Structure formats: structure tokens, C-alpha cells
Amino acid sequence: xxxxxxxxxxxxxxxxxxxxxxxxxxxxxxxxxxxxxxxxxxxxxxxxxxxxxxxxxxxxxxxxxxxxxxxxxxxxxxxxxxxxxxxxxxxxxxxxxxxxxxxxxxxxxxxxxxxxxxxxxxxxxxxxxxxxxxxxxxxxxxxxxxxxxxxxxxxxxxxxxxxxxxxxxxxxxxxxxxxxxxxxxxxxxxxxxxxxxxxxxxxxxxxxxxxxxxxxxxxxxxxxxxxxxxxxxxxxxxxxxxxxxxxxxxxxxxxx
Length: 256
What we know:
This protein is an all-alpha fold. Helix content is 75%, strand content 0%. The protein has helices spanning 2-14, 27-35, 37-40, 42-57, 62-76, 80-94, 98-105, 112-133, 138-152, 155-159, 172-175, 182-202, 207-232, 237-255. The relative contact order is 0.15.
């Protein structure tokens, strides 16, 4: 019951896949959902990997294939994380006043800073993936893309680690934040690093490249979270999205 509800919550929140609603939603299930986030993102990762493989078999330019693969990920989560990235950057750029920044983040519109952030982060994701796809080994590279997309979702367990307080006591702040024990977060990132290191070595990269990519992603996501805590007093759902998108960019650029 617990794992089933957590799985449904994770898949329903992080992807556009239709799933039955969880029977119960509480903080315990929310925490398990965030731990399962890398696995729950498999539908997105499979879509991106399939596009990467078909693009290579069809002889498409690597840039075109990378754009299509990243587009599948964006559409597959309804651009939810990109919206969070834009709102987070707009909030940070709007004012040093905490309440003013949080109000800007809730407006639902993207300002110049947010739009620029989306362009830069998507550009890094596409550029990194383009370079990854320039290697040899169609199926192996497709699997590497799959694991990279899943690995980036480990940022959510970091956002929900105990000790990282919410900026607001409503919405995601009440349900998800501080639900993951620090040791569990370490285990999630360790497993993800091992998976990406092994997959990278299988795809022909140095064995340490995948582990380094995960370490860089953790550092980037952590920096965003710390900045949000200082500016907003804690994290919000928008910060979750910003951390995920930045983590994916970090993983792909490091793999490149």
C-alpha cells in the first residue's frame, strides 16, 4: 500500500503518464515518492532513449536528435520543471525582499530572467547530449541517455532532505519537504552514481566519467537549494524543478 501509493504519486507528479491516483497521500508517502523519483521517471527516459536510438539509426544530425530527445523529456513532464526553473530565477532576480520574491514566483508568468534561464539550461542540455551522441555504439549510447535522465531526478531527494526547510507552509512545502532522511539521500545519490558510472563504462566512456557527472549534478542542485534557502527562507516546488533541470544539464555536459 505505501509503496504503491508512493509510486503512483511519483509517476503522476513527475510525468504525464496517466496513473490511478494514490489512495492516501501523506508525508511518509511523499518522501518515498521522492526517493523513487529516478525510477518513476523511466517513461521520460525511455522516450528520450528511443529518440536517441532512432535518430542514430536514421542518420539524423546529432543536434536534431538531441533536440528531439530533450523535447520528449520536456513534453513528457508537461514542462513542469522548466516552469519551476523560470519562476525560481525570476524570484531571485526580482528583489532581495523574501515576500516580494515569493510573490513573483506565484504569478505564473515568466520574466526576462526566467526565459533566459530556460534558454541557457536547455541549450546546455542539448549541447551536452549532442556531444554524447557523437560517440559510437547506438544501443549503448541510448541506454546511457536513459540512465542520465533518471539520474537527474535524484535532485528531488536532495530538495526533500530533512533540515532543508520549506519557504512556505503550504502546497509542496507542507507535503514533501523534510521527508527524506539524509542517509537515504546519500544512498540514492550513491546508487545513481554507480549506475551512471557502469553504464558510461559500458558505452565506452572512462569509468569515472559517470560518477563525476553525478557529483557535479549534486553540487549544482545543492548550490541552487542553498541559494533558495538564503533568498526565500527555504525551498518551494519551483526550486524542485530548477534543481532537476540544472542537474540534467550538469550530467549531460559532464558526460560530454
